[in-house]
């Protein structure tokens, strides 16, 4: 936890709409000693089941998806804007084809066995509570369908994750 201090999720003061939608997240998971991260700009935070939670939405085609499916926990890392090129790279390249950690030169750390990056300004360690495949059956406003292929082959899986630890850069 070098350079970080732990705070409660309720102590976060940054705007979640900016953190997720504008700054973007690195969703980082590890399974069988393989680690990968992907950029995410869809998600949210809130309270559900009397717990602080983070919502993430991951397409099954993503390389990180298999690691998430096989891991109890993962991290959501927020990097400052000087890492925009790293976030773009991690959102456009697949871990199947390239070692993103080596290519980005990010420093992989672990806390409680969960991977995160030392360069992050905020790290949320989250534990999966619930997951559900999204599909057209649940769509109420058909305008959202423009985000998906007509054949339905690219729907996300929604994860509701308990925020178990928050680290902020000191």
Concise structural overview:
Helix content is 17%, strand content 42%.
Description:
The protein contains 4 helices and 10 strands; from the N terminus they run E-H-E-E-E-E-H-E-H-H-E-E-E-E. The protein is of the alpha+beta class. The protein has a single domain, classed as Pnp Oxidase, Chain A. Strands 1, 2, 3, 4, 5, 6, 9 and 10 form an 8-stranded antiparallel β-sheet that branches. Strands 7-8 form a two-stranded antiparallel ribbon. The longest helix is centred in the middle third of the chain and has 9 residues.
> Helices and strands: which structural class?
alpha+beta
C-alpha end-to-end distance: 10 Å
Rg from alpha-carbon coordinates: 16 Å
The number of helical runs is: 4
CATH architecture: Roll
What's the oligomerization state? single chain
**Helix and strand pattern:** EHEEEEHEHHEEEE
Q: Can you identify the CATH class?
A: Mainly Beta
Strand segment tally: 10
Name the average pLDDT: 95
Coarse morphology: globular
CATH topology: Pnp Oxidase, Chain A
Number of domains as seen in the coordinates = 1
Topology of helices and strands:
Elements: E1 4-7, H1 16-23, E2 25-31, E3 34-40, E4 43-48, E5 51-58, H2 63-69, E6 73-78, H3 84-92, H4 100-104, E7 108-111, E8 114-117, E9 122-133, E10 157-169
Antiparallel strand pairs: 1-10, 2-3, 2-6, 4-5, 5-10, 6-9, 7-8, 9-10
């Amino acid at each position: 936890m070098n350079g970080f201090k732990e705070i409660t999720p309720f102590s976060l003061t940054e705007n979640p709409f900016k953190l997720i939608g504008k700054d973007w997240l690195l969703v980082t998971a590890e399974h069988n000693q393989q680690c990968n991260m992907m950029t995410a700009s869809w998600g949210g935070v809130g309270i559900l089941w009397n717990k602080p939670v983070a919502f993430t939405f991951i397409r099954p085609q993503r390389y990180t998806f298999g690691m998430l499916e096989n891991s109890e926990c993962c991290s959501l890392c927020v990097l400052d804007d000087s890492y925009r090129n790293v976030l773009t790279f991690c959102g456009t390249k697949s871990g199947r084809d390239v070692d993103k950690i080596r290519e980005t030169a990010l420093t992989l750390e672990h806390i409680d066995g969960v991977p995160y990056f030392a360069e992050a300004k905020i790290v949320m360690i989250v534990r999966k509570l619930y997951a559900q495949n999204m599909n057209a059956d649940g769509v109420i406003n058909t305008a959202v369908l423009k985000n998906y292929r007509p054949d339905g082959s690219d729907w996300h899986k929604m994860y509701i994750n308990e925020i178990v630890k928050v680290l902020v850069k000191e």
